Amino acid sequence: MTFNANEFDAKEVVSKDRNNVWHHLSQHKPYEESDPLMIVKGEGMRVWDAKGNEYLDAVSGAVWTVNVGYGRTEIADAVRDQLVTMNYFAQTAGNVPAAQFAEKLLEKCLA
Questions:
Q1: CA nearest to 85, candidates 74, 100, 98, 96
Q2: Are the C-beta atoms of 10 and 39 separated by less than 8 Å?
């Protein structure tokens, strides 16, 4: 199943979210009466909700998870290229990305 953030039924997606998703750090009682915020698109440091409202994302960087911003095609392309070549192999054998990353990580740690 694929999801295109540009083509969706907002009411259906909000209903599925309300019935099936647990939002950590949120009180869920209000969702019985009102819709949860549904973020559908990100670009750079900004995100948009299902109603078209634009927000500056001030929570996904730093200690959270999207500290590189949204819509970074160069990162998506690099991930795609790596997934096609070798998506994962347990560390019982070496692999190119692990060797390259380990070297860069150690350079930073020992600097």
A1: 96
A2: no
- Per 3-state DSSP, the chain is made up of helix, strand and coil in percentages (nearest 5) of 40, 15, 50
This prediction's pTM: 0.60
- For residue range 31-63, list pLDDT tens digits in order: 888 888 888 888 888 888 888 899 988 776 556
Domains of the chain in sequence order: 1-71 (3.90.1150.10), 72-111 (no CATH)
What six digits make up the tokens of 41? 């698109």
Could you give the CA distance from residue 22 to residue 85 in angstroms, rounded to a whole number? 35
User: What are the C-alpha distances in Å from 29 to residues 22, 25, 40?
Assistant: 12, 13, 23
Burial of 47 per CB tally in 10 Å (0-12, 13-18, 19+)? buried
